[in-house]
Amino acid sequence: MKEVYYFLDNRSTLGNIPTLFLLTWAEGRDMELTRYQRKEDVNHKWFVVDAKGATLGRLAVKIADVLRGKNKANYTPSTDVGDYVVVINANKIVLTGLKWDQKKYYSYSGYQSGLTMRNARDMQERHPDHLIRHAVKGMLPKNKLASQVIGKLKIYAGAEHPHQAQNVEKLEF
What is the tally of structural domains in the chain? Predict the structure, then answer.
């Protein structure tokens, strides 16, 4: 049986308004607390994902979850608990409908008339990794942690990658 205790704390951030806290105790157990993972306690694994025949958005969602660590039980929003992801065969990604010609990628140099616009087909020919990196980056939070997390994403156009020494595990979706 759980006993619920409420108590007031005058050290509130709302001025002199007391804050109400809820603590629960179970019989024979200590207080139940939410545990936060520290960056020193995290072990990052390496996973490889084959993008051959995968739809861009569906693959990017799953990669973003692994990079953030949302697939783990010890997920902490403020700490980088995610794993490294190596994507191979990035040039064999699939877009549905007419997105190869209608989806646009913009780049602005900062100068007048400096806007360059490419469709997905041209971007795939020039930089096959850009489609996946752009999609995954858009699914990460817009903060300093996102730039740290996106650095753990390694994308290669072919089937070979130089990360064999990290004991890479195959990740199936």
Answer: 2
